[in-house]
Design goal:
It is a single chain. By secondary structure, the protein is an alpha/beta fold. The protein has ten helices and 13 strands. Helices cover about 40% and strands about 20% of the residues. Strands 7-6-5-8-11-12 form a six-stranded mixed β-sheet, with helices on both faces. A three-stranded antiparallel β-sheet has the order 3-4-13. A two-stranded antiparallel sheet has the order 1-2. The longest helix is centred in the N-terminal third of the chain and has 22 residues.
């Protein structure tokens, strides 16, 4: 399979000066994602690059540290990524994208809450008409009545009541769709590695910060398949067409089983659906936008809307012809579409997810 390695401008004065461990790990992570999680191939690439550019005097020590820290381990004659290494990769991806968010000033813009989720806070306030009775704080309420009238003449009144402050938070179920069709690596542009990097970061972010949410990942080419989050580093592009309909259908099936207040689909794709299943036969047309394929895909988007599932599409290609289809998909579902470059993909995904949390204090 064809591999893509991107180079930045080389500054001669940095040669031989040594690179810190964080920078080496970032390089290891990026190459590891490009090699489909093949640790040995990633380390081989790093060694070859170091032999050519001499960016670090401690590459051997770095590899030993990966083993010592339990990020990689030997399995026979090869190195493999450990479960700890898998999580470390996700955290590294998240830290990189989140630091970029802070530098660029992307905000966390909350929107009005439409969910029914309520979380009790420890703070209290005086009871007012309309407050839920199950939020009354009994100890402080009784204490107020005693302070007002004494224990011998105890009489609890409405003015004595205190209620817990509450935080309205709608839980969210998310399915992340990743296009692994061959077009994601065509024309010398590696689109799959940034997509995987964003997926790693987003899954880590949700698992660490929103324990009541759910996140599922579906890869789609000729067909759609749910993959484990731990398998994300090993995801690779194949000689596939793009079955967007199957991807949306699988996401809808997953989300229909969830009891979360809000349900959404995030889809990272280069834009063009090129196949659908007709019974046991794969109908495909990689040339242009086939009306049969488009109509079936839009029908699935409409079904998602019927089930109150919002689709947000992040398109990583610049072709205006394909952008027209993505706009039509968004209009059909009443969702959103972002036409973003690969460099800013992570920032757009994170800002949109955080914005959709619909969290306010009442």
């Amino acid at each position: 399979m064809q591999r893509f390695v991107h180079y930045t401008k080389w500054f001669e004065q940095l040669a031989g000066s040594g690179v810190d461990l964080e920078a080496l790990f970032k390089l290891f992570r990026n190459i590891l994602l490009q090699t489909g999680g093949d640790v040995n191939e990633a380390l081989s690439w790093m060694t070859s690059l170091n032999n050519r550019y001499h960016f670090s005097d401690g590459l051997g020590e770095f590899i030993e540290k990966l083993k010592k820290d339990g990020i990689i381990k030997e399995d026979g004659q090869v190195f493999i990524l450990t479960s700890k290494g898998n999580q470390t990769i996700r955290k590294s991806s998240f830290n990189e994208i989140f630091s970029n968010l802070q530098k660029k000033g992307f905000g966390n813009h909350n929107t009005p809450s439409s969910g029914r989720g309520v979380e009790r806070l420890p703070e209290t306030r005086p009871f007012s008409f309309g407050d839920a009775t199950d939020q009354i704080e009994p100890t402080q309420s009784v204490s107020n009545a005693i302070k007002r009238n004494g224990l011998d003449d105890f009489n609890l009144k409405e003015d004595d009541l205190e209620v817990f402050e509450t935080e309205h938070q709608s839980t969210c179920a998310t399915v992340l769709l990743i296009d692994i069709s061959h077009s994601m690596v065509l024309y010398g542009e590696d689109r799959i590695t940034p997509a995987k990097n964003v997926a790693l970061a987003l899954t880590e972010f949700i698992m660490q910060n929103y324990s009541k949410d759910s996140i599922h990942v579906v890869a789609f080419g000729d067909d759609a398949e749910e993959i484990k989050i731990s398998d994300l580093p090993f995801l690779s592009v194949g000689p596939y067409h793009t079955n967007t309909k199957a991807a949306l259908g699988m996401a809808r099936q997953i989300l229909n089983q969830k009891k979360h207040e809000n349900k959404q689909i995030f889809m990272i794709t280069d834009g063009k659906p090129s196949c659908i299943w007709e019974g046991l036969k794969l109908y495909k047309n990689p040339y242009g936008l086939d009306r049969k394929i488009v109509n079936q895909t839009l029908r699935e988007a409409a079904l998602c809307r019927k089930h109150k599932i919002e689709i947000t599409t992040f398109m990583v290609a610049r072709d205006p012809y394909l952008q027209g289809f993505v706009r039509q998909l968004a209009e059909t579902n009443r969702g959103r579409a972002y036409f973003t470059g690969l460099k800013d993909l992570g920032e757009y995904v994170f800002v949109d997810f955080i914005r959709n949390r619909r969290k306010i204090i009442r």
